[in-house]
Amino acid sequence: MADFDQELDASGLNCPLPILRAKKTLNGMESGKVLHIIATDPGSVKDFEAFANQTGNELMESKEVGGKFEFLIKKA
Amino acid sequence: MSDEKKLAIIATKGSLDWAYPPFILASTAAALGYETEIFFTFYGLQLLKKDLDLEVTPLGNPGMPMPMGMDKWFPVVGLALPGMQGMMTSMMKKKMASKGVADLAELRELCQEAEVKLIACQMTVDLFEMNTSEFIDGIEYAGAARFFEFAGNSDICLYI
After folding, report:
1. Domain of life here (chain A) (predicted)?
2. In 3-state terms, what secondary structure has residue A1?
């Protein structure tokens, strides 16, 4: 996985909390910085895709690692 | 007028299960950049109380999954037994906590942080003689015309 600037562990949280926490964390980051998110909610895979599409923040990577879902999002 | 997308919701129900959809959708919409307003009317006003003492009832709700095959042991009339609603409520709360579903008060706070506008129906407040000191701060009291002012320009409008 590529480098990132900040990390958010949303493990154990269910919809819509991973998205809400990610949005809040991104709010505090500068444009171009990358957020690494870890989630266990299987719905988060489609949700982070949709989040990126609608907010303009780029979903650089999305993968499953050992039953957890990991995402890299670059702040627009 | 901004070019943000807009979501307008009418929240009419005051039970624990039905309290979730308005707050989940509103907070998510706000995170996606929607300008969002929720108009609370009738039983929906319970969702604005500082002390969120909401319950869930299996009565009249054949779609509600019952734990431990309880629906087989208790026919419909059994669900009306005293204490049943309290028991179902506490089971539902435990289940939600164990599955990482957000606490309602937390979701509501997230909505307010994200500047979701919460509007209480003044007519309902008067009708049920509700004490507004029991409601959270930062809400607006208004009528149907106020709802349409926003909803008329909304992209999505939901009645929950």
Report:
1. Bacteria
2. coil
The domain total for chain A is 1
pLDDT tens per residue across span B111-133: 999 999 999 999 999 999 999 99
Does A1 reside within a domain?
A: no
Higher model confidence: residue B72 or residue B20?
Answer: B20
- For residues A73 and A34, is the Cβ–Cβ distance under 8 A? yes
- Structural domain contains residue A64: yes
pTM, 2 dp: 0.89
Cβ–Cβ under 8 Å, residues A29 and A55: no
Query: Can you list the residues of chain A whose pLDDT is less than 50?
Result: none
Selected for mutation to probe chain A from B23, B32, B99, B156 (highest A CB count within 10 Å) is B32
Task: Please give the domain boundaries of chain B with CATH numbers for all domains.
Answer: 6-56+104-159 (3.40.1260.10)
Distance from CA of B7 to the nearest CA of A (A): 14
Cβ within 8 Å, pair A14-B101 = yes
CA dist B129 → B45, B54, B126, B144 (Å): 12, 19, 5, 18
Task: Report the complex ipTM.
Answer: 0.85
Domain CATH number, residue A23:
3.30.110.40
Q: Which domain holds residue A34?
A: 6-74
